[in-house]
Specification:
The complex is a heterodimer of chains A (about 450) and B (about 700).
Chain A lengths: L1 H14 L10 E4 L5 E6 L5 E8 L13 H8 L11 H8 L3 E6 L4 E8 L3 H14 L4 H20 L6 H9 L13 H6 L2 H11 L5 E7 L3 H12 L23 E7 L5 E8 L5 H14 L5 H9 L3 E10 L4 E9 L5 H18 L3 H17 L4 H15 L4 H10 L3 H11 L5 E8 L4
Parallel strand pairs in A: 2-6, 7-11
Antiparallel strand pairs in A: 1-2, 3-5, 3-6, 4-5, 8-10, 8-11, 9-10
Helix pairs in contact in A: 1-13, 2-5, 4-9, 10-16, 11-12, 12-16, 13-15
Chain B lengths: L1 H18 L21 E4 L5 E6 L5 E8 L12 H9 L8 H10 L3 E5 L2 E7 L3 H13 L5 H18 L3 H14 L11 H5 L3 H11 L5 E7 L3 H12 L22 E6 L5 E10 L8 H12 L5 H9 L3 E9 L5 E10 L3 H17 L4 H18 L3 H13 L10 H6 L3 H11 L6 E6 L1 H8 L4 E5 L5 E2 L12 H11 L3 H5 L3 E10 L6 E8 L3 E8 L3 E8 L4 E5 L2 E5 L1 H10 L13 E11 L2 E10 L2 E8 L5 E10 L2 E15 L2 E11 L2 E12 L10
Parallel strand pairs in B: 2-6, 7-11, 7-12
Antiparallel strand pairs in B: 1-2, 3-5, 3-6, 4-5, 8-10, 8-11, 9-10, 12-13, 14-15, 14-26, 15-16, 16-17, 17-18, 18-19, 20-21, 21-22, 22-23, 23-24, 24-25, 25-26
Helix pairs in contact in B: 2-8, 4-9, 10-13, 10-16, 11-12, 12-16
The chains are: A alpha+beta (about 450), B alpha+beta (about 700).
Chain lengths: ~450, ~700
């Protein structure tokens, strides 16, 4: 009886999917191939101006790892109309904030400005796209800055080498092998010809998406976009895009790394399908049931019941051409790392063998809905999601509808996909042990 | 028809318009829109609980944040217990086990956590009542289960363990404990010992004595009507009973008189985590706040701040350099930080200090000032996108008794700040000559060069002062190579062999003795030796001579002819550059480690000459000898005798230490060379 009431209750809440706050937007192409997306929202007098270039570290030439990211740094150096070092100052002095990021698949720039400065933002981004200027002094300084970034985030951090090692092993021999930060040697090797070639190949309107969200007047915005972007010539080179899938692992890889750490850590990466596929959505949901919240399978078992460690997490990192499902945890000092790995395996096997309870399935629907509605709280996030969905999933409107793709995943399908991918021969296990244990 | 023409015309204009875009003209802003602060509602329940509600239905979400106001709390030898008490509240109530709480929270996709004197819950607004119900349960009915307590202790110990290798955790521990002192609420450190001293009773007691509605604020933000929010809170928190909460007061921590450098050594570091700063007395609501915010913006508030522009964009020393400040009712801080590669650590510190002083001595240019104002106004506007900002404004106004229009007039007050105000604040709030400078990094690479900024001291993980650390000796370096390196450093074997005689005159000051003494040392090959100490008004107080055959010591107590062991000792003192003999003459040498000598890295060599033990230190950088130490039997038992060598100068191509500092027990002798000669043609008759 009790059970029946519970499942009725579940049905009622799962049924009430959110229709609130639909993100309205317009999109179109300029003649030069630049894709434009506009979202109007007057609730705060600010605007996010962003440009997504469809280039990341996977497009780098051999021997030039780290180049896409290094290049991103150089794209703040200026243009014939913006003196070296002025780019950031102009934005800041006009009440704006900016940043940029580079991943395996993309390079993304944005400014968030007071909405009366929209034209300024468009001018800045169009200068970057049309005629970025880089001198040798800038190259040398930014090379040092990038090296410091690598030291800061990787070399000087406990477990900091995890990304390099994980991707280097899981995607060995493919364009996802070397992380976007690259290697010190390759950073030193970059030459002037590389910069010119990279710029004229990838930083062209037909490889870019201009996404704007915030307090704008669409008509006025379009006029300015025309003014600043329509005269930028279309790229003439073919844009190289690796499409062949990285080869699967030929079996489980286990590696032990002795690092400057105190707590043993483990990182397990399972090779997975690429972004936007039904299987990838299922993997997202699997990460939720395994590790989202303290009632999740991994947390409950490892932190609460067996008390093997302080942290256990899992997430599905989907890339354009592949994916990696990563589970990781930090053990207590006296925990045997193999016990920790075994405990993860036990929960994963439970999922594969026993499937997902009705209650857990209802729970993750709520968790996913909460994540989904929380995404669009800020115009900067909206501009980014619109651009991202357009470029990598072929549909900007997924910002409103993607939750349906999750709703369509059944508990049985999750079980099937877990069995397909979460198996030892498809994974890399990195064990981190304190150096003094060596 | 007319219409078509018109639009053709427009088309033409637009086409020719962008053919002529003058890109050199930076677009001017459209008229600025007024920044509007959102509305909020406030209520007070009968038990004193104050409620602030900011309605915002952009997203179907809601958050509840409960803050119990309190004075800072000194936890002493149980440091860590109040946050542990807070975490424990979330792990079991009179009505629900932790497992039940986890299940219910996750089931509605919500978040719930508790801290020492705060609680936060958020989720989808359709579950508002479930969320507030769960929050009330952990805030009002915590059961403090023993089993969960044990778990948290274990987790806390693990997290302390992981901090030990995390350079950023080390840095904040070192900086806070240095700035405020270990015996201050903001400076005390959680340690294994302090965590192990916590009892379950401590946690319960803290909760009982400090959680009270008359001290608390409930801040509600999101898709909920204020009246409904108030009703819900009344339903779940209305019965919470008020109590008296003790007040606690603390003194302002003492400031250092001069800059101090504090280091935690981390041998594996490839970057130094640098923090520089001082405490400030800047309370919330102080009229100086907008000035300090502007000053901080100009100094290091972001990527256009002077620190970032100088240290990253100009020098490329770091990925980011910033400054920060906070206002606080007890004591605030002003600090600057960067992670820089080892070899530029001192250069980075120098640039930080240079930028501090520049703000104190040069007026900020009008444009730079206006740019900084615009930046802050822009950021103020951006933050208003989040309804949480309005809520925090409302909370601050109540909590710190600020004027109702404090945030409405913020921009106006900011615009009124002048360049002179900035300079005055820089002088008032930055102690550029009395900074606490902390560095977490590889001491072997950075310590020496940091000496110039202040006394260097070394600390351990728990804030305890340690001696200078020692470092492993790189492969390939041996005691022999160090000694050979020393011989090369002082001139090379060939040069040394060419020295036939030497005379050195030094002036000596001895601790506790008012008069100046003079020491003369003469040497002539093969091993003639004379040393004589004279004191003005007393004449010769001690003299030791070896004329090649016999040795004699004389002085105020008469003279003695030296024999046996004493004679051998004098003979060896007469040797020229005796270190060369270490490699042959019955010495046993052990290269132990690299240690710090006055901030300089030095190879430490233990010397064993027929059971006579001493330790010598040779500079890694210059190869020169820096220090000799030995333990001798003195009148009051064992004491350490040491001689420090510095201020090496070249005399006919041979490096001579012009400064020697001798320390024997309580006595300190400082000897400064006034004259040094080589091959001046000393005769045998000079050794009498």
């Amino acid at each position: 009886m009790h059970k029946k009431i519970l499942s009725l209750f579940l049905a009622s809440i799962v049924g009430s999917a959110m229709a609130q706050s639909k993100i309205e937007f317009e999109e179109y192409d300029l003649d030069n191939g630049l894709h434009v997306i506009l979202h109007e929202d007057h609730s705060t007098p600010i605007v996010a101006v962003s440009v997504l270039y469809h280039v990341g570290s996977k497009n780098e030439k051999p021997g030039r790892s780290g180049f896409a990211h290094f290049f991103e740094h150089l794209m703040f150096e200026g243009s014939p109309n913006i003196e070296r070092g002025e780019y950031m100052k102009i934005v800041s002095a006009n009440g704006g904030a900016l940043n940029a990021s580079t991943t395996f698949d993309r390079t993304y720039y944005f400014e968030i400005l007071p909405s009366n400065q929209l034209e300024l933002g468009l001018w800045l981004e169009s200068e970057r796209m049309l005629q970025a200027k880089v001198d040798i002094e800038g190259v040398n300084t930014q090379r040092e800055v990038v090296k410091e970034e690598k030291r800061l985030n990787i070399d000087n951090q406990p477990y900091g080498s995890f990304q390099e090692k994980m991707f280097g092993t899981a995607f060995k021999g493919s364009y996802y092998e070397i992380s976007p930060i690259g290697t010190m040697e390759d950073l030193n090797a970059a030459e002037e010809a590389d910069f010119k070639d990279f710029y004229s190949t990838f930083y062209v309107p037909n490889n870019a998406t201009l996404s704007i969200a915030g307090d704008i007047d669409i008509k006025q915005a379009k006029e300015w976009i025309n003014k600043y972007f329509s005269t930028i010539p279309k790229g003439t080179k073919e844009i190289p895009r690796p499409t062949e899938k990285p080869a699967p692992l030929s079996g489980e890889v286990v590696d032990t790394i002795y690092d400057n750490i105190q707590l043993p850590g483990v990182f397990i990466g399972y090779r997975c399908p690429e972004r936007g596929t039904k299987e990838a959505y299922a993997m997202d949901m699997i990460s939720t049931v395994l590790a989202d919240g303290q009632s999740s399978m991994l947390y409950k078992s490892i932190v609460d019941e067996k008390q093997l460690g302080v942290v256990v997490q899992a997430f599905n990192y989907s890339l354009e051409n592949a994916g990696l499902f990563i589970a990781f945890g930090l053990a207590n000092p006296d925990t045997e790392l193999n016990d920790f790995v075994q405990a993860i395996d036990d929960e994963v096997n439970k999922l594969i063998n026993d499937g997902i309870s009705e209650e857990d399935y209802a729970k993750i629907q709520n968790q996913i809905e909460n994540d989904f509605v929380s995404r669009n709280g800020r115009v900067a996030g909206i501009a980014e999601s619109l651009a991202d969905n357009h470029v990598y999933l072929g549909d900007a409107n997924l910002i409103n509808t993607e939750i349906k793709n999750y709703r369509e995943i059944s508990a049985e399908y999750m079980q099937e996909i877990a069995a397909k991918y979460l198996k030892p021969e498809n994974r890399v296990v990195l064990k981190y042990l304190p150096k003094n244990a060596q | 028809m007319k219409r078509i023409l018109a639009s053709l015309l427009i088309l033409l204009i637009t086409v020719s318009g962008f053919a002529q875009v003058d890109r050199s003209i930076r677009p001017k802003p459209a008229p600025a829109k007024e920044i509007e602060l959102g509305e909020f509602k406030t209520y007070t329940l009968d038990n004193g609980l104050k409620i602030i509600v900011v309605k915002n239905d952009k997203l179907p979400r809601v958050s509840f944040s409960l803050v119990v106001d309190r004075d800072p709390f000194l936890e002493g030898d149980k440091a860590g217990y109040i946050s542990l008490a807070g975490s424990l509240m979330r792990n079991g109530t009179a009505n629900r086990t932790k497992e039940q709480l986890d299940k219910e929270v996750d089931f509605i996709g919500a978040t719930l956590f508790t801290g020492a004197t705060n609680a936060y819950a958020s989720g989808l607004s359709k579950y508002s009542e479930d969320i507030i119900g769960l929050m009330a349960d952990v805030a009002l009915n915590p059961s403090f289960p023993q089993e969960e307590f044990d778990k948290l202790i274990k987790q806390s110990l693990s997290s302390i363990e992981s901090d030990k290798e995390d350079p950023n955790s080390l840095s904040s521990r070192l900086f806070n404990s240095s700035l405020y002192g270990l015996n201050h609420p903001y400076g005390e450190l959680e340690t294994e010992a302090s965590i192990n001293s916590i009892s379950l009773e401590d946690c319960k007691k803290f909760y009982q004595e400090n959680w009270s509605p008359n001290k608390a604020y409930m801040v509600v933000v999101g898709d909920i009507k204020p009246k409904k929010a108030k009703k819900l809170i009344e339903k779940y928190f209305g019965a919470w009973e008020s109590k008296e909460v003790a007040k606690r007061e603390f003194e302002m921590p003492a400031k250092p008189a001069a800059s101090e450098v504090k280091i935690i050594n981390r041998n594996s570091s490839v970057q130094t985590v640098l923090t520089l700063g001082n405490t400030i007395d800047l309370k919330p609501g102080s009229p100086d706040i907008v000035t300090v915010r502007l000053m901080n913006q100009i100094l290091g508030g972001g990527s256009t701040g002077r620190l970032f522009q100088n240290i990253r964009e100009d020098k490329g020393y770091t990925y980011g350099a910033y400054s920060n400040y906070n206002s606080d009712e007890l004591v605030g801080y002003l600090s600057a930080n960067a992670s820089v590669r080892n070899e530029v650590t001192d250069s980075a510190v120098a640039e930080f200090i240079k930028e501090f002083k520049r703000l104190q001595t040069e007026t900020v240019g009008e444009q730079e000032l206006q740019d900084a104002k615009n930046n802050i106004i822009g950021s103020f506007g951006r933050n208003l996108e989040s309804a949480q900002t309005i809520a925090s404004f409302a909370l601050n106004i109540q909590r710190y008794n600020l004027p109702e229009d404090y945030y409405k007039t913020y921009i106006q007050r900011l615009e009124a700040v002048s360049a002179e105000d900035i300079m005055a604040s820089a002088n008032k709030y930055i102690n550029a000559d009395a900074l606490t400078i902390t560095a977490v990094g590889k001491a072997a690479d950075i310590a020496t060069s940091l000496e110039k900024f202040g006394t260097v001291k070394y600390y351990g993980f728990n804030g305890e002062e340690t001696g200078p650390p020692s470092f492993p000796v790189p492969a390939g370096i041996t005691a022999e190579s160090v000694i050979n390196g020393y011989i090369d450093a002082i001139g090379g074997q060939e040069k040394l062999d060419a020295v036939k005689d030497m005379s050195i005159i030094m002036s000596a000051s001895i601790s506790g003795m008012p008069m100046e003494a003079q020491a003369k040392t003469l040497k002539k090959r093969p091993n003639l030796f004379l040393t004589e100490m004279t004191v003005a008004g007393f004449g010769t107080v001690q003299k030791v001579v070896f004329d090649g055959k016999k040795g004699e010591t004389s002085g105020m107590q008469g003279s003695t002819v030296l024999e046996g062991e004493d004679l051998e000792e004098i003979k060896s003192q007469g040797a020229f550059f005796g270190e060369a003999e270490y490699l042959s003459n019955g010495y046993k040498l052990t290269l132990v480690a690299i240690n710090m000598v006055d901030g300089e890295k030095a190879y430490t060599i233990e010397l064993d000459k027929n059971g006579d033990l001493s330790t010598e230190y040779y500079s890694v950088e210059t190869g020169l000898k820096l220090l000799e130490e030995a333990t001798v039997e003195g009148p009051q038992g064992e004491m350490t005798v040491s001689q420090k060598y510095s201020d090496y100068r070249s005399v006919d191509g041979v490096m001579i230490p012009y400064q020697i500092n001798i320390s024997q027990g309580p006595q300190q002798i400082s000897m400064t060379t006034t004259e040094a000669k080589i091959n001046s043609g000393l005769k045998k008759s000079d050794f009498k």
